[in-house]
Specification:
The complex is a heterotrimer of chains A (319), B (303) and C (383). With 319 residues, chain A is mostly helical. Chain A folds into two domains: 47 residues; 241 residues, MetI-like fold (Orthogonal Bundle). Chain A contains 13 helices and two strands; from the N terminus they run ααββααααααααααα. A two-stranded antiparallel ribbon of chain A has the order 1-2. The N and C termini of chain A lie far apart (72 Å). Chain B is an all-alpha fold. In chain B, α1 crosses α14 and α4 runs antiparallel to α13. The radius of gyration of chain B is 29 Å and the shape is flat. By secondary structure, chain C is α+β, with helices and mostly antiparallel strands. Chain C has two domains: 228 residues, Rossmann fold; 131 residues, OB fold (Dihydrolipoamide Acetyltransferase, E2P). In chain C, the strands form four sheets. Chain C has a six-stranded mixed β-sheet, sandwiched between helices. In chain C, β1 and β2 form a beta hairpin. In chain C, α2 packs across α3, α2 packs parallel to α4 and α3 packs across α4. The chains are: A mainly alpha (319), B mainly alpha (303), C alpha+beta (383). Chains A and B meet through α2, α4, α5, α6 and α7 of A and α1, α4, α5, α6 and α12 of B.
């Protein structure tokens, strides 16, 4: 080949396609290994302490024993037992009622307070801090503190009622008010967090949009409904999902305040599970109930996404 | 030259305007007052139960059952506090909780930042899938895993003795919360990609990039996650309840709850223990308030 | 010898083919500009050479070494990013020193190298500042200092001037040219700005939609564009295009006929043999004329193209006229002191030697036009 022709052959490939592929695979592999080293420290505990136990629970729900002795496979027996167990259905019902009441109440109040704090900024720091304080107390402590609010003898509420001339009330005497007491405790505790959450969400909404609405003649409530709420939707969805997941697992306050009473009226799902697993040693049923809890949470999360997600699409088509 | 009639009209319009403006101002003022009243009421509701706690803690328990109960004690009875400190394992519980929450936080911060960086900026097969899996586990209720975890800890081969009632047994399973990884990944994604690329060209290995470029820029997020995690473990109840059965390994939450079982009606002791637990937290909170508030708002902003 | 060879590079992102079989040869010390509109694949090529992306197929050779499967740092190339990518939490000094620290060079060497680089770029007084305290131009210089401190085999620059304001851009352009003259390091420079390309590059590689259109010296690419895209991309205002047909004329010549246009083209401009075939197949061509090659004459002048002035755009040094002619509009560059008014009739004169003719597929049919994608090496092109 002449020098000129050699010059022009500079763009000839030196590697065969097979060699190229092999070298490429080796290179990418080296990179991936380095990347995996970063994830492994997290993934190992993650798999060991979260994923494996979950599947183990599912497996154990088809077994008897397993906690202090070895497991014996018994098929669907556990599931049939809890299926017929009214205590379980009551617990689920209670949990659902509790969650609905608590979430509704805390979101409404938190949104309301957040709107106020957003508008009236003076001294807002003090209010934010004050509302946050109950969050610092563990739920257990909140339960105990709530004793001082609800107790028949010396609780704040009853003392106030007596001073007002109305008689005392035994809050833990009947199911509805007992459940409300739990709701009250958890709402009281969580209000600060959600208020701050909604406050941050509101502050994320660009001021110009509300100004434009005001110029267009929208009144306060209209502005809220037509501008603020649609823009808050993703935040709201996230909040609802998290709130559902958290509230369906309510346990600590029940343990401390009511122990499920009176007559199971405040027995929640996790309380039921805990009793079966650790108090009564009917572990198979406990696992089954736990798996049921997981399933319920999954379903509710999906429903929330569907309700709050697709509606956005429908609305924008209208608009 | 304006006609005299026109001037009269203008002044009348002025007066109308002034009247309306005054009315508006009054209304605005009224609304403002109402708003602050509402806010103050809620702030009071938030704080009063804590204040209410102070009274019983300084009085003998049986005094509480007199009806109507006396609010301001004649003398400050410190016996409750004395009992909490010396008659129960409270100091030990406090130590346990500190070690527990602190260790979980430390470990979580390390592994979550590492994993978050990998998910955000490193390419490897299965990255999206694994990340999706991690997020999905956010929905797993603790109750569904506590029992198998108990079995695991108590009977894992290789342990010479049961891991129940030990620190590692208490700490390790709580280390893998998906929320931290999610937060870290989101935050690291906001750092400009060019920075990491420039560092790669400058010869930094992935570990060096992480240590010298990414970490220094993540300080605020790390603080937020640290506080989040610490608080979450501080108030953790179900897991310590399950995994600690001896009195001297319990955490504060479990220990104080057990006071109710032991001393069924000793409200004085219980309120003293509550006061001792909460008021220091309030002090810490006030000192670091900026970070705490940021931690809550961070949840909203990451959207 | 830091020659860069890009052989048949193909790169897709999912379904999008960013680079379709591009081959490029950059000789040692050359300043090659990759020019094209956004999305044409120029940045992708740069990133593949840097090692920030993997090629789907094709080989990259830097300084005689195949680098496809080598980590970015080991390729010994330095990159300057559009947004400078300075480490915000480090001082200027630490930013510049960073690559050397990563290479674990001894401290005194690092100090000396940092001082040298800072001196070359005039940064001595800013060494202890943080990037946020610097202006855009200063940050750019820090990025450059960080790049040269490693004494790399090649520079890769990704639109480094786009974030600077107009005046600073001109100044920094000159500084970059001087820097290159001084250091003589092979440089691959990506931009969409044709002025940068024309003033800075030894050769320009014009790209569109992942395909290399033409590569040559600035003069080459400007005077002898391979196709319509290159012809209109370079030059502002862009080359004018007039629709029409070609007819062959006795004696081997051609005749271009458009609306009110009738031009005789000698066989020295358009070569007969290949052309006849193409023209018989389609017949529709476009005539290309640069605004500076058209002269304004009084209306009715012999042989001129009649037109009417639509707009006038005085830019101080020149006057650009938009003239309605030949069935469309034509832009003409003329003397700023011209007394012409809007609506006036004029006659447009031009030298038929300067004309380009583009076939239906966009190819330049001129005899001396290169084929699309041809790669004259620097030595050839300069002749």
């Amino acid at each position: 080949m002449s020098a000129e022709a050699a010059e022009r052959a500079w763009d000839e490939l030196t590697l065969s396609p097979a060699e190229y592929r092999r070298a490429g695979a080796r290179y990418r592999q080296r990179r991936s290994v380095r990347a995996y080293l970063f994830v492994v420290p997290y993934l190992v505990p993650f798999l060991a302490f979260l994923v494996v136990p979950l599947f183990w629970s599912i497996w154990l729900s088809f077994n008897q024993g397993g906690l202090l002795d070895s497991a014996k496979f018994i098929g669907l027996k556990n599931w049939r037992v809890i299926g017929a167990d009214t205590e379980l259905t009551t617990s689920i019902k209670n949990t659902a009622i509790y969650a609905a009441e608590a979430i509704f109440l805390v979101f409404t109040l938190a949104l309301f307070l957040a709107l106020l704090l957003n508008r009236y900024r003076r001294g807002s720091n003090f209010y934010k801090l004050a509302l946050y304080v109950p969050l610092l107390a563990p739920a257990v402590l909140v339960g105990l503190i709530w004793q001082f609010v609800t107790n028949y003898d010396f609780g704040l509420i009853n003392v106030a009622l007596v001073h007002l001339g109305i008689g005392r009330v035994n809050i833990f005497g009947n199911g509805t008010s007992a459940l409300l007491a739990i709701v009250g405790a958890e709402v009281w505790r969580g209000l600060g967090f959600w208020t701050l959450y909604f406050l941050a969400s509101l502050q994320n909404i660009p001021e110009e949009l509300l100004d434009a609405a005001r110029v267009d003649g929208a009144r306060g409530f209209q502005r809220f409904r037509r501008v603020t709420v649609p823009l808050l939707r993703p935040m709201l969805l996230f909040a609802v999902v998290i709130a559902i997941i958290a509230n369906f697992q309510v346990f600590d306050t029940v343990y401390v305040l009511t122990q499920g009473g009176p007559y199971l009226s405040t027995s929640t799902l996790v309380w039921f599970i805990w009793k079966r697993l650790f108090a009564f040693q009917q572990t198979g049923q406990g696992y089954a109930a736990a798996v049921l809890l997981l399933a319920i949470i999954l379903v509710l999360t999906a429903v929330s996404f569907w309700l709050l997600g697709s509606r956005r699409r429908r609305r924008t088509r209208e608009a | 030259m304006a006609a005299p009639g026109a001037i009269a009209e203008v002044t009348e319009a002025h007066a109308d305007y002034a009247r309306a403006a005054r009315r508006n101002r009054l209304l605005g003022f009224g609304k403002g007052v109402a708003a602050y009243v509402v806010l103050t009421v809620f702030a009071a509701i938030a704080l009063i139960p804590f204040v209410y706690l102070l009274s019983p803690s300084f009085r003998k328990s049986y005094e509480l059952l007199t009806f109507p109960p006396q609010w301001i004690p004649h003398s400050l009875y410190t016996g409750n506090f004395h009992h909490v400190l010396h008659g129960t394992s409270y100091p030990r519980w406090a130590l346990n909780t500190l070690i527990f929450a602190g260790s979980v936080t430390a470990v979580t911060l390390v592994i979550d930042t590492l994993a978050g960086y990998a998910f955000a900026r490193l390419r490897f097969p299965g990255r999206s899938l694994i990340f999706a899996l991690v997020i999905a586990t956010l929905m797993i209720p603790t109750a569904a895993v506590v029992a198998p975890l108990y079995i695991m800890i108590s009977r894992l081969p290789g342990w010479t003795h049961s891991g129940v009632n030990t620190y590692p047994g208490l700490i390790l399973p709580m280390v893998c919360s998906p929320l931290g990884v999610f937060m870290m990944r989101q935050f690291i994604s906001t750092l400009p990609e060019a920075l990491v690329e420039a560092a790669r060209l400058d010869g930094a290995g992935e570990w060096q990039i992480f240590r010298k470029i990414v970490l220094p820029l993540m300080k605020p997020a790390i603080v937020v996650l640290g506080i989040f995690t610490f608080m979450f473990q501080w108030v953790n109840f179900l897991w310590p309840l399950v995994i600690t059965t001896t009195d001297n390994m319990k955490t504060l939450t479990v220990g104080i709850a057990s006071l109710q079982g032991q001393f069924v009606t000793d409200w004085g002791v219980i309120s003293a223990a509550s006061v001792m637990t909460i008021f220091p937290m309030i002090v810490v909170f006030l000192i670091f308030q900026r970070w705490f508030v940021q931690a809550s708002m961070a949840g909203a902003l990451k959207q | 010898m830091a020659e860069i060879l890009i052989k048949h590079l193909v790169k897709s992102f999912g379904k999008v083919e960013a680079v379709k079989d591009v081959s490029l040869r950059i000789t040692d010390g050359e300043f090659l500009v990759l020019l094209g509109p956004s999305g044409c694949g120029k940045s992708t090529i740069l990133r593949v050479v840097a090692g920030l992306e993997d090629a789907d197929s094709g080989e990259i050779v830097v300084g005689g070494r195949l680098v496809n499967f080598i980590d970015p740092v080991k390729r010994n190339v330095a990159m300057v990013f559009q947004n400078y990518a300075l480490y915000p939490h480090m001082t200027v000094r630490k930013n510049i020193a960073f690559p050397l620290e990563m290479a674990k060079k001894p401290k005194h060497e690092i100090e000396a190298a940092v001082r040298r680089s800072a001196a070359i770029l005039g940064l001595e007084e800013m060494l202890e500042r943080l990037p946020e305290q610097l202006s855009g131009g200063q940050r750019q210089r820090v990025a450059l200092a960080r790049a040269i401190v490693r004494e790399p085999q090649a520079f890769l620059m990704d639109e480094p001037l786009s974030n600077l304001d107009a005046q600073l851009r001109i100044q920094t352009r000159l500084e970059l040219i001087q820097l290159h003259a001084r250091l003589g390091i092979t440089t691959m420079y990506v931009t969409h700005d044709q002025v940068e390309a024309m003033t800075m590059g030894h050769r320009i590689a014009v790209m569109k939609d992942g395909v290399l259109q033409q590569i040559g010296t600035p003069q080459d690419v400007y005077r002898r564009p391979a196709n319509i895209f290159v012809a209109t991309f370079l030059g502002a205002p862009p080359m004018n295009l007039v629709d029409g047909t070609l007819e062959s004329v006795g004696g081997g010549g051609w005749r271009f006929r458009g609306q009110n246009v009738d031009v005789q083209l000698s066989p020295e401009v358009l070569s007969p043999p290949e052309l006849r075939h193409e023209v018989e197949a389609t017949g529709n061509v476009k005539l290309g004329l640069r605004p500076e090659h058209i002269r304004i004459a009084a209306p009715g002048e012999d042989g001129g193209l009649p037109g009417r002035v639509l707009f006038l755009e005085p830019v101080g040094s020149d006057l650009y006229l938009t003239v309605e002619a030949g069935g469309g509009t034509v832009q003409v560059r003329t003397d700023p002191d011209s007394p012409l008014q809007q609506g006036e009739n004029v006659s447009l004169l031009f030298d038929p030697w300067r004309v380009h003719v583009f076939g239906a597929d966009g190819h330049n049919l001129r005899r001396d036009a290169p084929s699309v994608g041809a790669q004259p090496a620097l030595a050839e092109a300069a002749s």
